[in-house]
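Let's practice the habit of predicting before peeking. Look at the sequence and jot down your guess about where helices and strands might fall. Then scroll down.
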Amino acid sequence: MVRGGHHTAEKILETAHHLFMARGYVGVSINEVVQTVGITKPSLYYHYADKEALYAAVAERALVAMGAELLAAIADETIGFERQLTAVIATIQAHNAEDFRMMRHEIRVHLDEGHQQRVGMRFYASMMVPIETLMERGIVLRYFAGRRASELAMLFFCLVEAFTGPEAMAVQLQLTAEHISGMFLYGVAAPLRV
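Done guessing? Here is the structure:
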């Protein structure tokens, strides 16, 4: 938990974010974080109780940022549902350097139940709620029938995530956000629209 010294806490989070994304939870030590930031261990522990709390704070910070971007992507209803869907995919793909799948796995493996629940609630609020909101729009606009927004959001998220991340499979396959949006809306038999 952050207790004060906002600037130092942010510097710790920024540094830890880069280190954790590069090498994962196990690959990063508290010593490395404090040395990279240029602070002492007591200073880090003043802001974050332990490595678990730091990792959870890094995850929550990344999710809050992504959530704000997703909300911005769906804010302009005048551009049409398909373009909003594509904007959401492009927003997620813009974070290809971050491995949210690895982060979720490490949270399950290394963090206690309290941290898991807190980050899980942040994931739902930041990632799934904006996508569910968009799917509700799609239902109203009759793009979908017979499915709940929550089901559609999970299906959509899983499809998009399959083509994003550090390995950037979508880049290797030359799949744009428009291609992925088309697959989600019209299936794999539909011709590619560019």
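How did you do? The mean pLDDT is 89.
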